[in-house]
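# step 3/5: fold
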Amino acid sequence: MNPSVSRFDTFSLIVLAGIWGGSFIFMRIAAPVLGPIWTADLRVGIAGLVLWAVFLVRGASLGWREHGRHYLILGFVNSALPFLLYAFAAQHIPASYSVILNATSPLFGAVLAILFLKDRLTAMKWIGLGLGALGVALVTDLGATATGAMFWLSIGACLLAAACYAVGATYLKLRASHLNPAAISTASLLCAGLILAPGLPLVPPKAPVTGLVIASVAALAVVCSALAYLIYYRLIARIGPTRALTVTFLMPVFGMLWGFLFLREQITLKMIAGAGLVLLSLRFVLSTADGRR
């Protein structure tokens, strides 16, 4: 693959960052009312059905028999588990925290590239990983005066979700890069919905569902999942998983901006510094990314 990134791909990354940055705001609205399982399952289920309807209209086939295993794995790793984890975290920490911690995904991706894509662990990458760890430590210190079990569980959930995205991107490049991005988006979301569905009767919504909650779920499903996944999988196919994960460079900017504008979340110098360290770490980690990924 050509190591350069086209203007169209750059524009797609910016749009995707804005969309996914907004997803944390919608989860922050929906999850405290619906709970994490309902929030995550409605998100992936509706998104999958929307995309499936598009496929049916076009008369296209998803190829379940040939590719079902890939769809199931990606549905779990790239949708069901991370969406559930972020929805859990949205009940306990501000959206800005989640979106900053989400930016660690390329750091996990760099480690996986070393292990599975024959990448080299250079001094630059060591520096990047260290800066990333410092950035996460600074961000989590924001809650030092109100720490508790749920705070730290939420931080851990966000980091695990970020790792899930890296695993999914690496698996896609190794095993499923030949598949149609739209088919992957549709089938993996449908699989994620089926994976989460058994948990719905066990945990009913926590409060009456308002129009704002319904609108937030609709935005999560149609815009932040259906549309965003089409963009994301196509970017992985065009520019590789490491570069595609650089969407997280811009997500903290959008996430903090949306949180400030719509949820009145505070933006502090410490938060900006932590996000800056994480983003600087990505610059070191990704500086030697080559066109083979």
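# step 4/5: annotate
The chain is about 75% helix and 0% strand.
# step 5/5: archive (pending)
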